[in-house]
Specification:
Blueprint lengths: L8 H13 L5 H15 L5 H13 L4 H43 L3 H29 L3 H17 L3 H15 L4 H5 L1
Helix pairs in contact: 1-2, 1-4, 2-5, 3-4
């Protein structure tokens, strides 16, 4: 549903504001909420397009949530959509950080520290959920399962930078899945 003008800039702002306001733990924790909003509820994207967007936005420098907001906003409404989405995405964090900074300068916030300690397990759950749902959709053959396993081991055990795993995956897939001469001649 590229560049659909029936989607208003206000709608994009509100959706990404909600995503930004109700997600703790960074961009990866936002992914299931973005998927629920744009794929499941609104139907503005197909699941395959959403998964492709994740790969693309992880390959670009910057936070995955901001990259996702820019990509999706631009895809759905052009430059105005990108601006509206990214402002909606980052504004809640900015307001919360400013509020916390103000409160910390005036009060002892042991209660806030305990609340954040309780939020951390929920963040891990959101990230695990995102990995699980994406894994079910992407890991459909032995080739992708083996690559995902090797990449995870390399990242965890050998401290491989994730960007190297992403680029290697793209190059391997290009190399392993090129059309054969007889297929391209048919």
């Amino acid at each position: 549903m590229d560049n659909n003008r029936s989607i208003s800039l206000t709608q994009l702002f509100i959706i990404f504001f909600r995503v930004g306001a109700f997600t703790f733990g960074g961009g990866y924790a936002m992914l299931p909420i973005i998927q629920r909003e744009l794929v499941d509820k609104q139907g503005w994207l197909k699941e395959e397009d959403f998964i492709d967007m994740i790969g693309l936005t992880q390959s670009a420098p910057g936070p995955v949530a901001v990259n996702s907001a820019i990509y999706l906003g631009y895809r759905l409404r052009g430059l105005g959509g990108a601006v509206s989405s990214v402002i909606g995405c980052v504004l809640p964090s900015l307001l919360v950080i400013m509020g916390i900074a103000w409160a910390l300068s005036r009060y002892n916030l042991d209660l806030l520290n305990r609340a954040f300690a309780g939020v951390r397990p929920a963040v891990v759950s959101l990230i695990t959920y995102a990995a699980w749902t994406m894994g079910k959709k992407v890991l459909k053959n032995p080739q992708t399962i083996v690559f995902a396993t090797v990449a995870a081991v390399a990242i965890i055990a050998f401290d491989l930078h994730p960007a190297i795993a992403i680029v290697t995956g793209a190059l391997l897939n290009i190399g392993l899945n090129r059309p054969r001469k007889e297929e391209s001649q048919a």
